[in-house]
Amino acid sequence: MAETTLIDIQDVYKIYNEDQENEVRALDGVTLTVERGEFVAIVGASGSGKSTLMNILGCLDVPTYGEYFLDGNDVSILTDQELSRIRNREIGFIFQGYNLIPGLNAQENVELPLVYQGVFGEKRRTVALEALERVGLEDRADRKPSELSGGQQQRIAVARAIATRAPIIMADEPTGALDSKTGEHVLEILHTLNREVGTTIILITHDIKIAKTAQRIVQISDGKIVQDRPREEAVL
Predict the structure, then answer these.
(1) Which residues contact residue 69 at a Cβ distance below 8 angstroms, ignoring those fewer than 6 apart?
(2) What's the whole-number average pLDDT of the chain?
(3) What is the average pLDDT across 152-159?
(4) N- to C-terminal Cα distance for the chain?
């Protein structure tokens, strides 16, 4: 494995109801590597397996078969505590559904993963406010999710991922529920993180137009990778 390889999965399967009549192969022999600092889009239709792949890459789920090395570490032998630490410190998540806690204001939502990281007091507040400033919402820090538009809630979710200062951000349909202008803003934030900070971005989308903003496009269909090319060479 190359020194710059951050993610390396080999011949990964995710099978539900194995050997039964209703067996489903959500992932069917997927091999994929992602280099440190890449911006990769994983594109596919609904049910293609792209979200299942992200859940495995993000250590939210485990494969039925296959190997997964994250920054050189064999994920299959890690304890639940070690996997939790990876999710807290190594990976920032952005979901289409925002996943904000209704009872917390914007700043408190952004601070939440920092609590799990053991960041406390003024430092936690400062990091959260810096993340909110990066997404242009520092003036909404005291607002609850119900007081924010969908686009603002998604930007809060982006700020929460930024605040962890994780080397990897995984974004599952982060613009799916947004208008085009707000979606472009969210994408620009991700590209800025990739370009200026060196954050590795893995973007999951069904939208070919959005996929084409990435440096590299991985197309998945029926649980298999059917195309993996630089953006300039991709045929979509």
Answers:
(1) 1, 7, 8, 9, 75
(2) 92
(3) 92
(4) 29
